[in-house]
Design brief:
Blueprint (H helix, E strand, L loop, with lengths): L2 E5 L2 E4 L4 E8 L6 E8 L6 E6 L6 E3 L7 E6 L4 E6 L8 E9 L16 E2 L3 E6 L1
Parallel strand pairs: 2-11
Antiparallel strand pairs: 1-3, 3-8, 4-5, 4-9, 5-6, 7-8, 9-10, 9-11
Length: 128
Amino acid sequence: EVQLVESGGGLVQAGGSLRLSCAASGFTFDDYAIGWFRQAPGKEREGISCITIDNGSKYYADSVKGRFTISRDNNKNTAYLRMNSLKPEDTAVYYCAAVPHVYMHLCRVPVPRQYHYWGQGTQVTVSS
């Protein structure tokens, strides 16, 4: 069974940090690019980051650039999103998703329809 499982969310104060993990199984992880998305109440799902299969290309949305860092460890079939200097507006459910690398050789703005597999999401809440 194909699975992506996010973990690491929680409640933090503004200025704090979290590290999200995305554990993959049931498919060849190192043949897929990974995207991170978030969806806040009342807002559309937003693509915030992407990483190619070998860390060769990365993308960050302007809203998170300089604060968030995407990475992956293909030996562990896991992708990560390190989030620093968190703001209340970062509050959202965060999702990881996967797309075959043949369709994503370079990371650009992630859009949900590009991605084949999705995790269940993990809640990040940043208090003011």
